[in-house]
Each structure stands twice: as C-alpha cells, then as structure tokens.
Amino acid sequence: MLKTPEELRLELGQAIRVRRIGRGWSQEEAAKRAGMGLSTWKRMETQGPSLVENMINAAFALRCEAGISQLFPAPVAANLDELLQRQAAIAPKPRQRAPRRRSTP
Fold first, then answer.
1. All residues at 6 or more sequence positions from 64 whose CB lies less than 8 Å from its CB, including other chains
2. What is the pLDDT along the chain (105 residues), one digit of tens a residue?
C-alpha cells in the first residue's frame, strides 16, 4: 500500500525521534547539533520535516547521512545493452596529452 506524503513525513519524524532517543540526546542537544532551533526540532519530530534542509541537517547530526543519497536510486536497466550505455555515459573521459612541441634548432 502506498503512503501519502503526510504519512511519510510523520514516519520520518518518528524515526528521527527514535534515533535521537537512542543516542541519549535531549531535543535541545539534537537541535543544537543540527544547527536549528529547538522549536524547529520539536516540530520536525511531531509533524515530520517540512524542509529538506532540516531533514539533511538532522541526518548529519544523527549520523544517518549515508542514507540520504539512497532516496532516489537510479532506475534498474532493462537489459545489458542499456546498462552498458548508462555506464559509458557516466564514465570519466580519458585525459589526452597535449601534443609535444617540436624543438627548433
């Protein structure tokens, strides 16, 4: 069953609260570590994060930042050819050396 954006926000708020409590921090300490006001932190725990910036700051403070980049994974390739095309598109281009200058006698 799909969740609504509001349900996801509330779920995130609860997860943030559980993580904070697990670290043994007060709301005030967590807010300070995340660089936000206490009222913003409290609202985030009860209503869910309303700003992406607040959610990212909370993730860093609670040492969960690695999961943020996993929110939008790349779509799965339909076949091997598509996978190879995607890899080629993101692969760094090989560096080319500048031509040597000829020394003049």
1. 19, 58
2. 777 888 888 988 999 999 999 999 999 999 999 999 999 999 999 998 888 888 888 888 998 888 877 776 777 888 899 888 888 888 887 888 888 887 766
Please, are residues 50 and 56 in contact by the beta-carbon 8 Å criterion? no
Residue 58, in any domain of the structure: yes
CB 44 within 8 A of CB 50: yes
Burial of 95 (0-12, 13-18, 19+ CB in 10 A): exposed
Angle between helices 38-47 and 52-61 (to 10 degrees): 100
- Residue 95 within a domain: no
Name the H helices within the chain: 5-22, 27-34, 38-47, 52-61, 65-68, 80-90
Structural domain containing residue 22? 5-71
Number of domains comprising the chain: 1
